[in-house]
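TA notes. Do not distribute before section.
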Amino acid sequence: MELFVSDMDVSVGFYRDVLGFAVERRTEDYASLRRGLVVLGLGPIAKLPEHGDGPGFTGQRLSAGKGAGVEIVLELDTVDELRALYAHCQELQVVGEPLQLRSWGLHDFRLADPDGYYLRITHGDAAAPTA
């Protein structure tokens, strides 16, 4: 997955320092980050063409709302890992919605990155204890 961002340094810092991604590669125009099996690319909006006729991204298209209608789900291995990341995000005051047990049996919390991309952080163990 690749996200187009307003400020590369701010976005790299958010995904690295808040969500625990490791920077694998970084240039002025691109960053590749990894957390477990998830690889995330970040590219600067400023390098996109302003207008275009095709379905690709342009500055004009992204000015209407980055990530509108998209929920990015980061699935962690365990509920304990999820709780630890939630506590870290609380300390940094970046949580948008609190950690909750959902009706489908998984815990999650939600937040937005610096560009407003909507993130749901959850775990893959539906049999985890609810306490």
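Switch to the second chain here.
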Amino acid sequence: MTPLDLLDLDSLLDDEERQIRDVARQLVADRVRPHVADWYEEGRVPARELAREFGKLGLLGMHLTGYGCAGSSAVAYGLACLELEAADSGVRSLVSVQGSLAMYAIWRYGSEEQKQRWLPALAAGEAIGCFGLTEPDHGSDPASMATRARRDGDDWVLHGGKMWITNAPVADVAVIWARADEGVRGFAVPMDTPGVSVREIRRKLSLRASATGEITLDEVRLPAAARLPEAVGLKAPLSCLTEARHGIVWGALGAARDCLETTLAYATTRTQFGRPLAGFQLTQAKLADMAVEWQKGYLLALRLGRLADAGRLRPEQVSVGKLNNVREALDIARQCRTILGANGISGEYPVLRHANNLESVLTYEGTSEIHQLVIGQRLTGLSAFA
């Protein structure tokens, strides 16, 4: 048991869950940790190379079944997300967007032809997917999306744009959501389709070890077979977000744990005024409060994972997890930075990198305010969105 596992939470996992967690942790230690600080500083990530590595271990779409997917439990998927984000939120985002957004959308709403075409390659990391919902002028309000899909004979024609799309600069396929006369519809769009263009978003101060882009759709003509036949209405993309948010609930804990472990090691070896920093009451109070919040977040994530595996997880429950765990993880990262002092802003330590990343995680796939309103609607029966 590690010092952070105050409540012996590891005993709540079964052997398979621990094994999957340990495999993900070792992969991160070997393949990501030695390089991620440089990737972050340089604003790049070897996404295709990482995708193939993750695919070999079955981490892509791992909670889905068939088509080359591992069919793991929701808890095992969450534990993998935790280990990935303990290295960097951008690396976990690569896996989340691939598996819980692009792959899940095709797996849940696609035709058999679409599943056969895309899922095995995506699961193996031989292809990369992205998920186009957010737009330049429509983030928290996807119901107001401006991207349009119109019928033209047997074809569909898409026109519009998507913004802040993880994996877009390296993607082979995009799941694009657009408004048609019949309502919101989803499409599996090969990125080499005429009329599709991508601009990589540079000069980010957060999630720098992640490929982010803007997708422009200029009268993109698609065959009828490109439409996801089971995706009808806005509930379809929102259900994909619920899948991805579950991974975020776990992933944020990874960033927080890495900050805590780094800070514990630093505080017990850094000497000031004749004793280690960890020997001062104020430092111990900070560490104690952070460790308690981490344990509470882990229990929350585990509860949501068990509900997901039982088929009983509701969207507002995921909102509770994302609201709490990302908010607390960010607070932990900021507090850890204070203990490290000036060293806390150095790239030699991961703490401020995690804090910067968590600023984005706090906002994407539902801001804290949106999740508060989701929970508020459940509590009161009244919608405050309109």
